[in-house]
Amino acid sequence: MPPSDAPSPMVLARGLRRCYGSATVLNGVDLAVAPGEFVAVTGRSGSGKSTLLRLIMGLETADAGTIRADGRIAVSFQEPRLQPWLRVGSNVGLGLPRSIRRDRVREALAEVQLADREREWPLRLSGGQAQRVSLARAIARRPALLLLDEPFGALDALTRADMQDLVLRLRSRHGWAVVMVTHDVAEAVRMADRAVVLQRGRVGLDLPIDRSRTDGRGRPVDHEELEERLLDALRFDHPSAGPETEPGSPRTEGTQRRTQQ
Ligand SMILES: Nc1ncnc2c1ncn2[C@@H]1O[C@H](COP(=O)(O)OP(=O)(O)OP(=O)(O)O)[C@@H](O)[C@H]1O
Ligand SMILES: [Mg+2]
Question: Which structural domain, as residue segments, surrounds residue 194?
Answer without folding.
Answer: 1-72+176-246
